[in-house]
Design brief:
- This is HNH nuclease domain-containing protein.
- With about 325 residues, the protein is an alpha+beta fold.
- Among the domains are: about 55 residues; about 70 residues, no CATH class; about 100 residues, Herpes Virus-1, CATH 3.30.40.
- The chain contains twelve helices and six strands.
- The strands form two sheets. The chain has a four-stranded mixed β-sheet, with no helix packed on it. Strands 5-6 form a two-stranded antiparallel ribbon.
- A hairpin with a 5-residue loop joins strand 3 and strand 4.
- Helix 2 crosses helix 6.
- The radius of gyration is 33 Å and the shape is elongated.
Length: about 325
Amino acid sequence: PVIGFNSAKFDASVQFKNLKSKDWTISKYLGSSTIAKQIVVKHKSSSIQLRFVDFKIDSMQHKLKDAVRDFGNGTYKKGRFPHEFININNYMNELNKNEPFPIEAFDNKLRNKKLSEVKYKEYLVEAAKHKSRWDYLRYYNILDTRVLIEPIDYLIELMFKYNVDMLANISMSQRSNAIKYSMAYNGFDINGDYNCESTDKSIEITQNYWRAKVDSYIEQDSKKDRDSSNNVTIDDYDYIKEIFKNQRCHMCNARFTWKNRPTLDRIDNSKGHSKDNIIPCCLYCNVCKANRDENQMKLMIQLRKYALFKQLPMTLTSDEGYQLLRKGITG
């Protein structure tokens, strides 16, 4: 990334002048036609990419010295250079000279301001340390670059603390939102218990219910060509009944009720529903896990439980829920 201050307005003009370059092309542009929040320039042959970012997207300050005060160490050391005096037509002749710039060269016609005698004398002291205007320009450019290093480092450390990608989140609202969610999940523990315990009684399955489950497991294994000769049977009714009554879901630690139906999750998905290959699991977790990685799916399930427990907003995935909410949206 190439980070500048107020570069969205001024540095972008340099890039637009070279739009017809045979070596470089603009691969991404974010912003309006007048202010660019981010520009990505790509080299056509080497695939090198330069991402131009304006520091002002991180600051409400309009002046560089104010941004340095708020995000840096408060020390603002930047030299003086006659920006309006030097242009594309005269830069070679003027910069080849060895004498300091005259005080008139620092006139700011845009703001109708002139450089004071005191500040001009300060410039003369610095200019005397350099043999030519080219040398002074290099010195000025170094100062111009260094002044933003500490503020940038401060922001990087701040965003790293909350695991926020500065380049992926390019606006203050995006980053504040990311920090908010990072802090909201600070207390999350993948092995935590985030179940809202209901007053429903623990489930006590009937023999007819268990017989239907046994037939269902045999049918599942047959369709997948799994060995079902050692599957649980109707004779295991008492054993399974006690498991569902006294144990909890191995994924989310939820209690089994008639609203939270129990199922048998297979430890080894390549084998059938044998007695030594089953573990109790609620219906939601079993469907969600399926044949996926258990640790990954446990993380997703527990994050959902945590969000519900803490009443955090989540992405709407239910079409029924969306339609219900949509009826209350006007405009």
